[in-house]
Amino acid sequence: MPMRNVFSWNTMIAGYFKCDSIDHARDLFEKMPERDGVSWNQMISGYDRNGRPEEAQNHYWHMLAEGIMPSTFTFASVLSACAQLQDVERGKRVHGHIIRAECGFDLFVGAGLIDMYAKSGFIEVARQVFDRMLERNVVSWNAMITGYGLNGYGDDALKLFYQMREMGVNPDGVTVISVLSACAKNGMVEDAQNVFDKVPQRNVCSWNAMIAGYTQNRHCGKALKLFSQMRQACVKSDEVTFASVLTACASLAVLNQGKQLHGLVIHSGYEGSVFVGSALVDTYSKCGSTEDAKQVFEKMPERNVVSWNALIAGYAHNGLGKVAVQLFEEMLRAETMPNHITYVSVLSACSHVGLVDQGRQYFNSMNHDHRIVPNAEHYTCMIDLLGRAGKLNEAENLMNSAPFQPNASMWGALLGACRIHGNLEVGKRAAECLFELEPESSGPYVLLSNIYAAAGRWVDVANIRNLMRERGVKKEPGCSWVEVKNVVHDFVVDDWSHPQAELIYAKLESLIEQMKHIGYVPDISFALHDVEEDHKIQSLSYHSEKLAIVFGLLNIPNGTPIRIIKNLRVCGDCHTAAKFISKIVEREIIIRDANRFHHFKNGLCSCGDYW
Prior knowledge:
This protein is mainly alpha-helical. It contains 32 helices and six strands. The protein has helices spanning 6-18, 22-31, 37-49, 53-65, 72-85, 88-100, 107-119, 123-132, 138-150, 154-166, 173-185, 189-198, 204-216, 220-232, 239-252, 255-268, 274-286, 290-299, 305-317, 321-333, 340-353, 356-370, 376-388, 392-401, 408-421, 424-437, 443-454, 458-471, 501-517, 533-541, 544-555, 572-585, and strands at 479-484, 487-492, 562-566, 589-592, 597-601, 604-605. Strand 5 and strand 6 (604-605) form a beta hairpin. The chain starts with 5 loop residues before the first helix and ends in a 6-residue tail after the last strand.
């Protein structure tokens, strides 16, 4: 370059930032013989856009120290950096500079202030800034709507959206995504759908926001239906679409639809995406097909910590804890840095197969080896691991030693262990704490009732049921479902509502007789009512798991595994029955309950009866 001036230097710096060559941009800036406000702005905005907000802030303060006056562009960039860091204290100081520079009424600076205060949790101050703006454009409205959504004020976001339209401000794509996300995040999916229905032109982003909203709020069937409508509308799916829809498939454990989506992923050219690939691994794992999950993982051209986490968690939840631990060690050898989710998965794996010493080792190494401070999830996994192994005192001591108050999950893990080992003393203590922490949850009442029932203390069982009635706590009914030809069929206990009910019950009675001939004895400890033994056996016979299994046998071709989903923990008698049925019919039966997978084959379960 024959003649270098400040303009050419600034142009080069901007070019380096656009190419992600941040170090080259910094080196060039430091070599500049002369700098102007644009030079500083390029550095501040460049660092901000490239996810290095601390350095953006530092350059702002150095700029002031050099006596350079900030412009509106400077303020917008440094406010964005403060928002990324949720650094409201420095943000307030910048706000003071803005007032003194008389830039407070600039539209983009105003939007930046709203964004900074909202992301820092000061939503009332953000609204004050918004209300004081003499003029607002769509960016200002979007910032305020987004802020409400981030802070859990879905109603206010929706009201502001309608107020915006009443004032004649035309929403843009960002507005639509912001209000849909705000509604979905706060459970207002019907309101989100109403907004979505009124959008005249929907792009892939608005479709994605609505699908993700349904998925996040566990309306996964509606998410899949909306995806079908999106395809009918000839809107091309992107990575975000596939990730959301695959998550919906994973939640419903609909393997066939997951495989169909996998085909669409390949056809659309996203098979090499680490984002979509990780979602596929997670989907196959949560559908109980670890073989497919491993195949997808091995074909991924690039893997990150999310990919490894999905596979490790998949093996852990499918009862293959030792394989999950081996994968974790392989991940470390591949120099992929684990995160807190990785450790939740590997500790869970240890818990599912009783690797107590190894679990202790991993728990103690988290902070030492990877600077990951154990949180409540990690403590819950350890309490579960120790409790399942019968080390209830050690589990309770560990919980009490945590540097924070035990939460419901931690007490729940301890209570679950007491149910396994029949420890009434510790169980009562855990249940009482859970009654306070989760007064509307039926789980602690049911588990404590189970402990009493197993001990034959029927008066106490009745007292628990009376207590639930007095407090208005309702037990969540057990429900099992199975997918056949892309249709999900659900069952509850003693369910005669299905069109094939007579066939199902006839087949089930036949199977029960065959099971008894080869050693099956109904475990009446899982019949939690003080009635005659015959009635207890009858109540066990028609649990939802058994009905779903038999329906699968009647409708799913031979050679294909029967995949059942249960919303609660599978009952012990049903677990035993599934083993016998798998042996009699020579079929693999896979049950995913609230905690894990059970793969039944040839009369055995993948959990090794350690659950």
